[in-house]
Amino acid sequence: MGVNGLASILGVFDISLDKLSNGELWLAQFFRGLSDGATYASVALALVMIYKSTGFINFAQGSLALLGVYLAYIFSVEQGLPVAVAVVCAMAASALVAAFIERVFIRPFPPDHVLPLVIVTLGLLLIIDSAVGIVWGFRTRSLPSMFPSGAPIEWGIAQLTWRTIGNLGTVFAVVGLLYLLLSRTKVGLAFRAVSSNLESARLVGIRVGPTLGFGWALAAAIGTLGGSLVVPDLLLEPSIMLRVLIFSLAAAALGGLDSMVGAVIGGLVVGLARNLLVTFLDLSELALATAVAVILVVLLVRPTGLFGSTRVERV
User: Which of 101, 165, 229, 258 is deepest in the core (most CB within 10 A)?
Assistant: First the structure.
């Protein structure tokens, strides 16, 4: 294939050779992809927490994160708290809301009745998003970042900003803290037992209901943290977390719905792929469709994801 043939193929996708040969542009999108991937990874972690303990996807996860981010905005912008303190307060508030929702709307259903639970979470998604719009309106807002501006590493247009470093550091810190919580504390060990075998956990005296409520609260707090990481790069409005949820779901499916490490790796891969596709293939309008396609392909080729485990059922 000659140069003319390559140029014609690239022209179909509106790709220029100048873009492909621009090392600074590649590096800039790599840094941006890492930042976006860290936020997708944090929300994917929240999805994994619920799936590990219940076996179904909590579609209301993004809405709970949305509520938490709006609370962080109220605490920081309107009440004047430091952004980091406001985010921690919002994480606590969203955790309480999630624990209440689990107790009132989720616990009455038997855990093995997955379809009603999925429908409930879809309903909660619509209710919470609509309630947020009614209470705070649909105008866009700006939430400050928890990290300072500036870039300690620069190469032309490519900048490794403090925000990117902070996002990555936050996600890895969350994974480390989750590992310690789940492996070194009684409530964490109880959660792991419920995640492994709910009936066996109940037979050995573990209080399954409160343990699942703890999982919902923890997932909501992590989701709020992830939303607080991504919103400073965008604008806060009632539909913002729906898009983040789709990319995070693709990350969780890619990494494995029951693997925390897989959620982080999947989030970084999705973040990098999204930025590279949007930049070099001009697929910004198809970004969400591409994420859905990733979910479908993973479910068809490897339903457990890259790092997920196959569940064995005894009969």
Answer: 229
